Amino acid sequence: MRLIILGPPGAGKGTQASRIAEHFGIPAISTGDIFRANIKNETELGQQVKAILAAGGYVSDEITNAIVEDRLGQDDCARGFLLDGYPRTLAQVEALDGMLAASGGSLDRVLELTVDDDVVVGRLLKRAEIEGRVDDTEEVIRERMAIYHRETKPLSDTYRERGLLVEVDGDGEVDAVTERITSALA
Question: Quick one: which H or E segment has residue 61?
């Protein structure tokens, strides 16, 4: 099973990605986790990413595509994978299409967790309070939500046109959301 999970910040993608990956026996691949691990381990990539993020920039498609291609080439991805945080742009969609075509594969489904913006804002404000994230104000969270909707809609539309998009309500208890997802992907 080759999957992508989409959803706004706070929709529960990380939690659900690990559950879905376990269910299907495939690795959950988070580009954010890969970046953080490289920064922590002070790799060459980590140093590049750290400098980009420190300057308030976005990691380029070129760098992101290269790390995803490298990761998808590893043995544990032979039976499938779940991508979380990639692709984020239409250029990355095209790059992923090329990677998969080169290996003779294709995506099976693109899962989008849908959650009302006000619910997500509440979740993220609560998380910010628990984790002491003073920068996560409601204004900042709503701006991130606006960016997400603006940048992800074209991806959702593309995958919907290809007949791959499966939308699942991401609101509610974690187990109930997991059950809705596994039913939708069956």
Answer: helix 61-72
What own/partner pairs with CB < 8 Å and gap ≥ 24 does 52-58 have? none
Question: Measured between alpha carbons, how far is 113 from 106 in angstroms, rounded to an integer?
Answer: 21
Amino acid at residue number 13: K
> pTM surpassing 0.85?
yes
As annotated, the active-site residues are 13, 88, 127, 133, 144
The CA-CA-CA angle for residues 107, 148, 16, to 5°, reads 55
pLDDT in tens, 88-136: 889 999 999 999 999 889 999 999 999 999 999 999 999 889 988 777 7
Bridge partners (DSSP) of residue 5 are 84, 111
Distance CA 11, CA 85 (A): 12
Round the CA-based radius of gyration of the chain to a whole number and report it. 16
Closest CA to 106 of 164, 66, 48, 45: 164
Burial 93-128 (b: 16+ CB within 10 A, else e): bebbeeeeeeeeeebebbbbbebeeeebbebbbeeb
Assess contact for 16 and 177: CB atoms under 8 A: yes
| Residue 58 reports pLDDT greater than 80 | no
